[in-house]
Amino acid sequence: MLYILKLENCLIDSKLTYYLWPSSTDLFVAGTDTTSSTLEWAMTELVLNPEIVSKAKKELEETIGKGKLVEESNITKLPYLQAIIKETFRLHPPVPLLLPRKAERDVEICGFTIPKDAQVMVNVWTIGRDPTLWDNPNLFLPERFIGSEIDIKGRNFELAPFGAGRRICPAVMLGVRMVSMVLGSLINSFDWKLEDGMKLEDVDMDEKFGITLQKTQPLRLVPLSIGN
Fold first, then answer.
1. How far apart are CA 228 and CA 226, in angstroms?
2. Which of the residues 14, 134, 150, 173 has an alpha carbon 20 to 30 A from that of 5?
3. How far apart are CA 34 and CA 211, in angstroms?
4. pLDDT in 10s for each residue of the chain, 228 residues
5. Which domains does the chain have, with CATH numbers?
6. Is the pTM of this model over 0.70?
7. How far apart, in whole angstroms, are the C-alpha atoms of residue 89 and residue 37?
8. Residue 120 to residues 22, 95, 170, 174: CA-CA distances in angstroms?
């Protein structure tokens, strides 16, 4: 933003810089952190579920061609890849607790009273694993989203990893496009295996909770040339 203003020969006073610089930095860091976290969790689930990888590879090969990179124009033609990403958001939301809201007055919701000035945080991690909302909630099953109208744009409360309404993440669609292109390209361009000596049961699924949901132990994979 500062660069654009400079190109337009706008005068940038010190006060404007003071507010814009940290805000721009926060947006950039938040976007890259959540995207990388989502990609790592998606690849972790895929390496543990080779049958899902096979289905994704088949869709990619039939749609864009084997070994090609996924482009933005391809995304809507890859429903199984989108289902994988939605399932990753469900089990491993990039931000497990959405940004807090503050009650302006006493509010009663479902029999609970939220007092004025109380801060409310939505636990999307728990919602994504709620057995009253999802069948087999702890299993990674992209098929649950095939033919489903549930999306991640904040219209469906059971899957709202980016929030909803006026305070939904402003970069939600950019983030989803980035994850789609990178994850699809990783699947379509390489085969993947665990580092030498590691077995599937050795893959650590422990989560490190913070502002973003990270793996406690980073995933370590080795890319292989795809077979003919």
1. 7
2. 173
3. 10
4. 444 445 445 545 555 555 555 555 545 555 556 789 999 999 999 999 999 999 999 999 999 999 999 999 999 999 999 999 999 999 999 988 888 888 999 999 889 899 999 998 889 999 999 999 999 999 999 999 999 999 888 888 899 988 888 878 877 888 899 999 999 999 999 999 999 888 999 999 999 887 788 899 999 999 999 865
5. 31-225 (1.10.630.10)
6. yes
7. 10
8. 25, 15, 20, 27
Q: Amino acid identity of 127? A: I
DSSP 117-186: T-EE--BHHHHTT-TTTSSSTTS--GGGGTT----SSSS-TTS-TT--GGGS-TTHHHHHHHHHHHHHHH
Detail the residues annotated as belonging to a binding site.
169
Report the length, in residues, of the chain.
228
